[in-house]
């Protein structure tokens, strides 16, 4: 455990005036660093005598088993707010993963934005990050769609509104196949043609895939999300058959009573817990292709860590995936991680239930534009729609990221778009206000300043908070939860709001104005950097 994680900022109480950091002897005892027996105050005093004051720590004191540290005030004001890079590793992040031939469903929003946050965070900490969008572009649903397009498809409608038409064809074919065995068989036959690379089936599938990717890239651009690689299940169809052969040669593939190919994952080897990797007709399954994809990525990119971001319904799937990789002898599967998330409840627009993500983004922009037009403080801007889009997306992100990712949450338009309170709108408003302050005082040179002039309690509280930025990024990198960074930034905004009232720049002596402006500039820089990690685009006017 890093020593930094044992050091805590003082609570807002007795320690606030006297200590910048404190170390509890109880924490050291719990972590096995100090003996668990004996008087905690005596232990604190003994430890404190071994700690020396230096140019950084100007005072060390103890009270009731807690060691308090006071940092050199001038040095504190000079500390850089930038985060320290961690050890560089190669991280492979796989997220979003919508199904081709369908419009971008709002249900894929969480995977996309959480995966983007994780990739941004890892990259900020100095890692080499490879961002992959692993599309759902294979499987029996394309048997339904391919056969359905032959029955109900129209080239004319495909040109006019491609994804909407494909969606309608799929829904109709799926409904027909429920009670029509011939339709069901036609779907199976088309998918088998795909797996056997029959040119007509492959050509139609390629057309559907390209139409979808073009549409999705427009959505990703609006979200500020990019990918290094667009891959999909289809890339691993042949490799999936190789996986089946490897499982067979290793004696891991068993045949069930139904004739399917399974891998026994039960601890006792009694087939109590099996994973199906092959249908009775010899075609592969989603997990078979996932096994092949993981092996292929390790060979191609030699990642140190691979992260999958999907909803919590797939927890068992990924447990089985990692187990199968391990029993196949791939020890690196221990460095694969699944980040599950809960469901969003009650997401709807004024017109009713939402199906597509574009509806959500349009609604967020429209509502934000309306709120901005009603607010008396809104500044004139060149492109209010663009600002409304950026602020609306920030509101979506903060609502999504404030709690634990695994929890379900209820979508609330009104609360999400409030300018006051802990919202993405508040983050953007604070950033714009800081930019305005810096712009109004652009004639003041804050590159050099006297840190001894930042000794007010308000200044010290902000500086102490800024010092925690690196710690918060480290904490976020440990559990891949954005809530730590969101809450850190929200608190920074509240502290900055108080500083706006108490630490005036205009009318202050030049050297004081210079020091205070430097403080606001540091806050603005950390706020902007943190917002970008979360996936926001900071605005400088609203």
TrEMBL record:
<comment type="function">
    <text>Catalyzes the attachment of arginine to tRNA(Arg) in a two-step reaction: arginine is first activated by ATP to form Arg-AMP and then transferred to the acceptor end of tRNA(Arg).</text>
</comment>
<dbReference type="InterPro" id="IPR001278">
    <property type="entry name" value="Arg-tRNA-ligase"/>
</dbReference>
<keyword id="KW-0648">Protein biosynthesis</keyword>
<dbReference type="InterPro" id="IPR035684">
    <property type="entry name" value="ArgRS_core"/>
</dbReference>
<dbReference type="Pfam" id="PF05746">
    <property type="entry name" value="DALR_1"/>
</dbReference>
<dbReference type="InterPro" id="IPR001412">
    <property type="entry name" value="aa-tRNA-synth_I_CS"/>
</dbReference>
<dbReference type="GO" id="GO:0005524">
    <property type="term" value="F:ATP binding"/>
</dbReference>
<dbReference type="InterPro" id="IPR008909">
    <property type="entry name" value="DALR_anticod-bd"/>
</dbReference>
<keyword id="KW-0547">Nucleotide-binding</keyword>
<dbReference type="InterPro" id="IPR009080">
    <property type="entry name" value="tRNAsynth_Ia_anticodon-bd"/>
</dbReference>
<keyword id="KW-0436">Ligase</keyword>
<feature type="domain" description="DALR anticodon binding">
    <location>
        <begin position="427"/>
        <end position="542"/>
    </location>
</feature>
<dbReference type="InterPro" id="IPR014729">
    <property type="entry name" value="Rossmann-like_a/b/a_fold"/>
</dbReference>
<comment type="similarity">
    <text>Belongs to the class-I aminoacyl-tRNA synthetase family.</text>
</comment>
<dbReference type="GO" id="GO:0005739">
    <property type="term" value="C:mitochondrion"/>
</dbReference>
<keyword id="KW-0030">Aminoacyl-tRNA synthetase</keyword>
<dbReference type="GO" id="GO:0006420">
    <property type="term" value="P:arginyl-tRNA aminoacylation"/>
</dbReference>
<dbReference type="GO" id="GO:0004814">
    <property type="term" value="F:arginine-tRNA ligase activity"/>
</dbReference>
<dbReference type="Pfam" id="PF00750">
    <property type="entry name" value="tRNA-synt_1d"/>
</dbReference>
<dbReference type="GO" id="GO:0032543">
    <property type="term" value="P:mitochondrial translation"/>
</dbReference>
<keyword id="KW-0067">ATP-binding</keyword>
<protein>
    <recommendedName>
        <fullName>Probable arginine--tRNA ligase, mitochondrial</fullName>
        <ecNumber>6.1.1.19</ecNumber>
    </recommendedName>
</protein>
